[in-house]
Amino acid sequence: MPDTPENAQTDARRTTKTALSTLTGGITSQAHKLADGRDIIYFDDPDTQLPAERRADPRELDPRPATATMRQDPLTGEWVSIAAARQNRAFLPPAELDPLAPQTPTNPSEVPSDYDVAVFENKSPSFGPLLRDDNEPRGLYDLTRIGLERTRTSVGRCEVVCFSPEREGSFGSLSRTRARTVIEAWAERTRALSAMPNVRQVFPFENRGVEIGVTLQHPHGQIYSYPYITPRTRQVLDAIDTYGPTLFADILEREQAGERMLLRGEHWSAFVPFAARWPVEVHMLPHRHVADFTETTAEERDELAVLYLRLLRGVDALYDTPTPYIAAWHQAPVNVARDDVRLMLQLTSPRRAADKLKYLAGSEAAMGAWIGDIPPEKAAQNLRDAIARADIAHPVEPTASAASNDQEPR
């Protein structure tokens, strides 16, 4: 068929329909391809109003950039991914050119069709597929060796998780139903990414606020899949080796009995940690040991949707304007220490007052020796008060199980 404007318009109207995968809670998913071959997966709410068909991507895109290269720091053994293609990523575009909104005739965005939740491969990833060379990591032993000027291809995967087609907001502004769909997407993508070659750890997270460095206002998060065990997790593994395999269980038991508790349900507890580094720092743990989101039950995901929304809305109620934060979901490595490392949220914010931010000074940035600005017990009281205000101003509709089991912190 000749390549004419008329045929291009016909192609732009084309829709595709694939088999739906049914997940927990009545949520469904379907996988498609973008114009350059990247994956996009749609996750539909259980009460979705969207048709099963999804619009095909009509764009003509350049080939994918070469995958980034990692360089090892011989002083620490850490790997640094040099991802030059990220220099060209979108930076605070106008609303009419939102790259995460559904495509329109005037906005050739990354998401061809309307959606509830959409997950797609990042166009300029820090870690990506092995496209052109064979300098891939050769297992964990290879990556832990120390040498001079060692390089490996940054094999892995970086995905963008669009929480909503709305152009503004964050996870905390979602409905309970939509929050549950995002949690399901985290679990399903963790399962799929963990099965990929060379992936050693999967990390879902949300950056919120320009103060954190966010370059897109659209409500979204990301999932990074690393070819190594991250430095932060290696520190946790060292702590477990020193303390013993009950470290997470003992922390949870101690915090549940203390004054830093914020929220406690049947399945999850949120608290300010004993040695909080940041002015706002909250940890959340499941009550039973699960290594990552794939091991959580439908009931645990249901309750998490409620408690996590309450927590985030409380963080925003601390001040009159939204609070910048990083919400980091730490998961156990793939096939390593699964019985010892527990799924854990670590939410941090540099906001130490309504009009003040904590900047990392020499001791913290250069030496990793932290100085806290606010006593954790005081921070916990501030957050409990803020959560109470948010519960009144922006109540979260509970699930039946969450409504009957939510407990006040002790």
Write the layout of secondary structure elements.
Layout: H1 5-12, E1 15-16, E2 21-22, E3 28-33, E4 39-44, E5 54-55, E6 69-72, E7 79-82, E8 117-121, H2 140-144, E9 151-153, E10 157-162, H3 176-194, E11 201-208, E12 220-226, H4 231-243, H5 247-256, E13 261-264, E14 268-271, E15 280-286, H6 298-316, E16 325-330, E17 344-349, E18 351-353, E19 356-357, H7 362-367, H8 376-393, H9 400-405
Antiparallel strand pairs: 1-5, 2-3, 3-4, 4-8, 6-7, 6-9, 8-10, 10-12, 11-12, 11-16, 13-14, 14-15, 15-17, 16-17, 18-19
Helix pairs in contact: 3-6, 6-8
InterPro entries: GalP_UDPtransf1, GalP_UDPtransf1_His-AS, GalP_Utransf_C, GalP_Utransf_N, HIT-like_sf
Keywords: Carbohydrate metabolism, Galactose metabolism, Metal-binding, Nucleotidyltransferase, Transferase, Zinc
Region (Disordered): 48-69
Find the structural class using helix and strand composition.
alpha+beta
* Poorly predicted runs: 1-13, 402-406
CATH architecture tag of the largest domain = 2-Layer Sandwich
Percentage of residues in DSSP E strands:
15-25%
Top CATH class of the largest domain? Alpha Beta
Calculate the mean pLDDT score and round it.
92
Helical segment count: 9
- State the CATH topology of the largest domain: HIT family, subunit A
Kindly provide the radius of gyration, computed on alpha-carbon positions and rounded to a whole number of angstroms: 22 Å
Number of DSSP-assigned strands: 19
The major β-sheet equals: 12 strands, antiparallel
Query: What series of H and E elements makes up the topology?
Result: HEEEEEEEEHEEHEEHHEEEHEEEEHHH
Which of globular, elongated, flat, extended, rod-shaped describes the shape?
A: globular
| Tally of distinct domains | 2
The H-level CATH homologous superfamily of the largest domain, spelled out, is HIT-like
Report helical residue fraction.
25-40%
Strand order within the widest sheet? Answer: 2-3-4-8-10-12-11-16-17-15-14-13
First-last Cα distance? 70 Å
